[in-house]
Design a protein that fits this description.
single chain; nine-stranded mixed sheet; alpha/beta; globular
Length: 394
């Protein structure tokens, strides 16, 4: 008889009827009129969504994505009452360092597929065997193939605890953690909880910046640029954040009814990523791994698993947890912290801010390309940053 702690094999097997229903719903879209501006200031542009929908129905092949996932080792296990899905990609090299990577929103495990090869088998990508990692890439509860929480409390702190249990259950006694976006919050919490075996963490979104950053009477040019970018985001680019923080159930009805509404909601994120994704459909020039097919792999995953609403709800959980913890001291992170700032992120974090956020900062680097979906857009560069950040911990 199986136990709840068992680790079970998992394969993706989408019914043909679900794919046919998706296409029918796209074809039945009731389109709004064209926006009255020449940029994205009124939201996702009609031409982008029209072309995305056309490609989704006529050219996109979910079965190819399904085969790509099923070629990987996928598992499920119940932790704290939730069925957690994860990819477990072991390195062919001995003494590989275990690494758990957490995705964000509007991403998923799909963001991380491109880094699996460079991280697990660096010798095949111009690296050395001593840089190899064993990868654990879980789906956050309520996202993709992980189960949807049926009770309150699944915030980033609880997820961090679940990830520590997952690594323990897999037999890893020493490991590191990485995350961006929501994954950065999970990874930050892992560092503060400091579970046994966690050696260090790396992030590529500075959480303090989304709260307003670190204003000063005499900011440096880098700090001023970051403050200006945050102001722009908070005044004209964070509509999705406000809705998901406060009223996720409301938007959920549309996200589970219309595939095109889901796609629009997921595209309406940061400006840099939006224009890169839009260009992949309307300009034919994808930015690195942000191709038409990869973008639709991610959106289709949300649609077929029906997780648009539950993923949005995770933001509400984190907002509630932050409100309840307001004014209470947080545990310090004493583990080594690595941070990489990408130029196309919502804001480019200055080193001074990273040092204020993480006094144990041991690695900081500003790279020349990539944005919010850096692992997806520039998987080779992303992998090299992870290797550099964790090299001293081997």
């Amino acid at each position: 008889m199986s136990s709840e702690t068992d680790i079970r094999p998992f394969q993706v097997d989408t019914p043909a009827e679900a794919i046919a229903d998706l296409r029918q719903r796209i074809a039945a879209t009731r389109w709004p009129s064209r926006e009255l501006v020449a940029d994205r200031s009124q939201g996702v542009q009609l031409a982008t969504l029209r072309e995305l929908a056309r490609y989704w129905v006529t050219d996109y092949d979910w079965r190819a994505c399904e085969a790509r996932l099923n070629a990987l080792t996928q598992r499920k296990t119940v932790i704290d009452g939730e069925d957690i899905h994860f990819i477990h990609a072991k390195s062919p090299h001995a003494d590989a360092l275990p690494l758990i990577i957490t995705h964000g929103w509007p991403g998923s495990i799909m963001e991380m597929l491109g880094v699996i090869g460079p991280l697990t088998n660096p010798t095949a990508h111009g690296g050395s065997a001593e840089d190899a990692f064993d990868l654990v890439i879980p789906s956050v509860p309520g996202y993709g193939f992980s189960s949807e929480p049926t009770e309150l409390g699944w915030n980033v702190g609880r997820i961090a605890g679940a990830w520590a249990e997952l690594m323990r259950r897999l037999g890893y006694t020493r490991y590191v953690a990485q995350g961006g976006d929501v994954g950065a919050a999970v990874t930050d919490n892992m560092g503060r909880q400091a579970p046994e075996g966690l050696l260090g963490i790396h992030m590529n979104l500075l959480l303090a910046g989304l709260g307003g950053g670190y204003p000063s009477p005499d900011p440096s040019p880098e700090e001023r640029a970051a403050l200006d970018a945050i102001h722009t985001f908070r005044t004209s680019g964070n509509g999705y954040l406000i809705e998901q923080n406060t009223r996720p159930q409301t938007i959920g009805y549309g996200l589970l009814t219309s595939p095109v509404a889901l796609a629009a909601w997921m595209l309406d994120h940061d400006t840099d990523a939006y224009y890169k994704i839009s260009g992949a459909f309307t300009g034919g020039q994808p930015s690195g791994g942000l191709t038409r097919d990869h973008i639709l792999d991610n959106i289709t995953l949300y649609w077929l698993t029906g997780t648009g609403a539950s993923a949005a709800r995770s933001y509400w959980e984190n907002t509630q947890a932050a409100a309840h913890a307001a004014g209470q001291p947080r545990p310090d992170i004493k583990l080594p912290v690595g941070f990489t700032t990408f130029p196309g992120e919502i804001f480019r974090a200055p080193r001074s801010w990273a040092e204020k956020s993480y006094p144990s900062l041991s690695y900081f680097n500003e790279v020349g390309k990539g944005g919010h979906f850096a692992a997806w857009e520039e998987p080779g560069l992303f992998a090299s940053e992870i290797r550099a950040a964790f090299k001293p911990l081997r």
